[in-house]
């Protein structure tokens, strides 16, 4: 007769199977643990910049060297905080991301603070000329922003309201139009009379981000 103790010894024990990969005790996944095992912290998320930006144009440029052509990207960008500050910058790089980063840093170094009214408009009419682009900007109460192309980009990122702007020349160069707009708005800040620039090879002033 087999005793109860021998029966208990000879009885096979149930094998303990490992828990499936990715499962948790009780079936609850910690809230701070994402799929893949990484903590769901704010690491990797960049803080929002205080400046808004808009790209005017992106061009692929080539430089001829002894070893052949070397291609880069040229980016023109306008940045502003929509509170009266705006700037324009240029940047070149082997790829567009590097060129945009350089252009953004360049624009931040050449920002201007526009003198505005309480309604975020400008106090009076101004005009300026840069290269072949000639523009005028004037207050227009109750009409909003009446402008096009690069002028609207500069005015919008500066945070101005009730503005009418127009290009008075046949120039289609967005960069020159934006620089002319920056030059005109800088007249308000510096309290200077509008000036013209007929020399295309003249050095670009720091106001227009040259």
Describe what this molecule looks like in 3D.
By secondary structure, the protein is α+β, with helices and mostly antiparallel strands. Helices cover 23% and strands 27% of the residues. The protein is built from four helices and eight strands. It has helices spanning 4-10, 96-109, 149-158, 174-190; strands at residues 52-65, 68-80, 85-93, 112-113, 126-130, 133-139, 145-146, 163-167. Helix 3 (149-158) packs across helix 4 (174-190). The longest helix is centred in the last third of the chain and has 17 residues, at 174-190. It is globular and about 60 Å long. Mean pLDDT is 79; it is low at 192-206.
Outline the biggest β-sheet: 4 strands, antiparallel
Widest β-sheet, arrangement of strands: 1-2-3-4
Number of helices: 4
Radius of gyration: 31 Å
Broad CATH class of the domain at 52-197: Alpha Beta
The assigned CATH architecture of the domain at 52-197 is 2-Layer Sandwich
List keywords for this structure.
single chain; 210 residues; alpha+beta; Double Stranded RNA Binding Domain; 4-stranded antiparallel sheet; 4-stranded mixed sheet; 4 helices; 8 strands
Short description:
This protein is an alpha+beta fold. It has helices at 4-10, 96-109, 149-158, 174-190; strands at 52-65, 68-80, 85-93, 112-113, 126-130, 133-139, 145-146, 163-167.
Secondary structure elements and pairings:
Elements: H1 4-10, E1 52-65, E2 68-80, E3 85-93, H2 96-109, E4 112-113, E5 126-130, E6 133-139, E7 145-146, H3 149-158, E8 163-167, H4 174-190
Parallel strand pairs: 7-8
Antiparallel strand pairs: 1-2, 2-3, 3-4, 5-6, 6-8
Helix pairs in contact: 3-4
């Amino acid at each position: 007769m087999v005793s109860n103790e021998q029966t208990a010894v000879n009885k096979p024990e149930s094998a303990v199977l490992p828990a499936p990969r990715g499962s948790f005790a009780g079936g609850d996944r910690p809230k701070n643990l994402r799929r893949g095992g990484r903590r769901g912290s704010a690491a990797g998320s960049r803080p929002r910049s205080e400046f808004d930006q808009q790209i005017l144009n992106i061009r692929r440029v080539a430089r001829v060297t002894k070893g052949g052509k070397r291609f880069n990207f040229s980016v023109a960008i306008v940045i502003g905080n929509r509170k009266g500050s705006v700037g324009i910058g240029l940047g070149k790089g082997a790829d567009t991301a590097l060129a945009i980063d350089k252009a953004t840093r360049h624009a931040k170094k050449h920002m201007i603070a526009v003198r505005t009214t309480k309604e975020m408009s400008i106090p009076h009419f101004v005009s300026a000329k840069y290269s072949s682009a000639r523009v005028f900007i004037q207050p227009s109460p109750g009409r909003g922003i009446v402008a096009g192309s690069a002028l609207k980009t500069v005015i919008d990122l500066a945070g101005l309201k009730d503005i009418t702007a127009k290009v008075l020349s046949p120039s289609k160069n967005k960069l020159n139009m934006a620089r002319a707009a920056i030059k005109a708005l800088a007249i308000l800040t510096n309290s200077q009379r509008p000036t013209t620039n007929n020399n295309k090879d003249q050095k670009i002033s720091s106001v227009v981000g040259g």
